[in-house]
Amino acid sequence: MQTWRRTLESLCLSFGAILVGLLLFGLFCALAGANPFEVYGLIWKAAFGSSSTFQNTLIRASPLMLSALCTALPARLGLVIIGNEGALVMGGLAAISIGLIIGTALPPILVQIAMAVAGLVAGGLWIGAAGALRHYRAVNETISSLLLNYIAIALLNHLVGGPMRDPSSLNKPSTFPLAEVNMLGNIPGTRVHWGLVYGLVACLITYFLMQRTTFGFAARTAGGNVRAARIAGLPVGKLTVMICFLAGSCAGLAGMVEVAAVQGAANESLNVGYGYGGILVAFAARHNPLAAVLISLLVGGILASGGILQRSLNLPDATVLVFQGLVFLVVLYSDSLYGKIPFFKEKPIITTSASPPASPGEEPVMTA
Amino acid sequence: MAEGLGWWGVPLAIVAGTMRGGTPFLFVSLGECLTEKSGKINLGLEGTLLTGAMTAYGVSYLTGSPWLGILAAGLAGLVLGSIHGWLSQQFRVNDVAVGIAMIIFGSGIAFFFGKPFIQPSAPQLPTLNLAGSNVSPAVEAALQISPLFLLGLAIAPLMKWFFQSTRWGLYVRAVGDSPDAARAMGVSIFKVRMLSIMAGSFLAGIGGASLSLYYPGVWTERISSGQGLMAVALVIFARWNPMICLWASLLFGGAQALGPSLQSVGIKQGYYLFNAAPYVLTLLIMIVTCSPKRTLAGVPGALGMDN
């Protein structure tokens, strides 16, 4: 059982890491000649300052939640999958294809369901392939999923620039636009589209799947010790492929959301950093889907502040990338501090047992 | 480049592209090879490559000397490498995750400081001309060879000799294969890995310099198309052998030249798909050469372990 000290430790380390990342970033800004407090203020204002800017953050956070699951779920199996971007692109491509094929022949709700399913399946197959290669051919899943990213982007560029190109999109090649009625609407009273709900629901479902079901237990067991899982008769190969499929389908859904709620067509804006952002969210959340929701808000806020930093302080858009990188590095370092800070150490409690009297030095030690 | 040669332009352009496109692969894969021999993976070489490309271009532009640019690129790589080397050896820190963070951080640094250098043109490295004076301009252009390519050609056998026949090479191999044995020899695992990662990042930084100062010879945010990441796959394919890294780099450089060279003879259909050739090739090679039944020959024993 986790005690309050343990919980406090993981809370303190997570937030401490982000704070230290902020400090380092301030130092970086100061070195680059910008006033760090002004930068902090602008990020805060752009991310959470008013209800209007917070809605921008929410719009960015929803694909991040879905994309983060693509790294977080396989991590429970001990796999490092970084194919978020590729699965997102494939999901977006599949969704727009289905959306364009059906057109207005069916009611919008059915079209949207078909698009979501297409996104789920395409993304799932993409990362599922990386999982299958891992299990059946021992191909390193990190590298194969990364290569699949590049292949997916090449496919996107090919389709958008050639076979699926809308001739009227001159500056930025795009596919034909989705019919207006088939677009995902906004949550009433806000500018935030329904994709946010998709993200929240996906994080909730996967959390319960991993923490509260036998399937999740089997996956975590295999992640802890493959050999033990095999001896226990767990189908490790099937688990690997299924988890990877599930992970990829989350990122594919993110692609569908981007296409159906934001872009209205597939174009190169599909790969605008939700891939790496999702990886960062997954690691910072320690691969916990519920924590990923909160961290997505934070990272979504950082992404949303990129434009304003550029306009107000004339800092390059890459400032946001430096910030993400610094936070990521500090978050990784904070992992090594677990169990090293004396305050969070469990105090051994020496229990006095009735009989027989323990010989000196062999008292049963229990942790509370 | 290949106008006037017709279809002969395709193989010629591929040969030329092999030498041009192969150079960054060569440096990054040799750097990754050295790093992995010591038992750690550095995925962050993609970020190092970008930072190296930006530093080389910037320094070359500001000082007017491309050679200083190359040196600066190596040093910038060294700094990023020291971050990776230190962080990836902390308790419970996964080197693959650090690598991903370093990709983000390195490309962030490169794009942040590289913004002012996108417009101006920096002095490029001089090239050696292999072709005689009486050949057509296309052939002449194809046979211009960079001194960096020759340098890479020299480093590959040198590294092989280093691993096989020197005391320090033995230390690196011992740390990568069996940390316990290395500890028994009285070698500091931390120091050896730190130095290997830093030296490997130095090479990757120079690989970046070859992108911005030789081919394609510009600095843009899209200058690297994943060479730093493909190098990791390339080293696996090359079985951690520096000489095979050399041949594999040439193969990858050639695969990369396929798209542009077909475009130069007027085949525009599927340009992007041909550009994906190196990635598909890498994936196919990994599928064919890996097997769940045996570990790969030549893999450093401690690679991917928590120690």
Describe the model.
- The complex is a heterodimer of chains A (368) and B (307).
- With 368 residues, chain A is an all-alpha fold.
- Chain A folds into two domains: 78 residues, no CATH class; 258 residues, ABC transporter involved in vitamin B12 uptake, BtuC (Orthogonal Bundle).
- Helices cover 69% and strands 2% of the residues of chain A.
- Chain A has 14 helices and two strands; from the N terminus they run ααααααααααααααββ.
- Chain A has a two-stranded antiparallel ribbon with strand order 1-2.
- The mean pLDDT of chain A is 87.
- Chain B is mainly alpha-helical and 307 residues long.
- Chain B has a single domain, classed as ABC transporter involved in vitamin B12 uptake, BtuC (Orthogonal Bundle), CATH 1.10.3470.
- Chain B has 13 helices and two strands, in the order ααααβαβαααααααα.
- In chain B, strands 1-2 form a two-stranded antiparallel sheet.
- The model of chain B has no long low-confidence stretch (mean pLDDT 87).
- At the A-B interface, α5, α6, α11 and α14 of A face α4, α10, α12 and α13 of B.
- Chain B: It is found in: Cell membrane.
- Chain B: Keywords: Cell membrane, Membrane, Transmembrane, Transmembrane helix.
- Chain B: This is ABC transporter permease.
- Chain B: It is a multi-pass membrane protein.
- Chain B: Its main location: membrane.
- Chain A: It holds the Pfam family BPD_transp_2.
Q: Determine the structural class of chain B based on helices, strands and strand pairing.
A: mainly alpha
Low-confidence stretches of chain B: none
The Rg value of chain B, from CA coordinates, equals 19 Å
Total number of beta strands of chain A: 2
Largest interface, Cβ cutoff 8 Å: A-B, 47 and 48 residues
- The beta-strand count of chain B equals 2
Quaternary structure state of the chains depicted: heterodimer
The helix fraction of chain B, in percent, is 55-70%
| Fraction in beta strands of chain B | under 5%
Shape of chain A: globular
Mean pLDDT of chain A: 87
Q: Describe the biggest sheet of chain B?
A: 2 strands, antiparallel
Neighbour order of strands in the largest sheet of chain A: 1-2
Number of domains of chain A: 2
Helix content of chain A: 55-70%
CATH architecture of the largest domain in chain A: Orthogonal Bundle
Return the string of H and E elements of chain B.
Answer: HHHHEHEHHHHHHHH
Q: Provide the succession of SSEs of chain A.
A: HHHHHHHHHHHHHHEE
Subcellular location (chain A): Cell membrane
Main location (chain A): membrane
Protein name (chain A): ABC transporter permease
GO molecular function, one term (chain A): transmembrane transporter activity
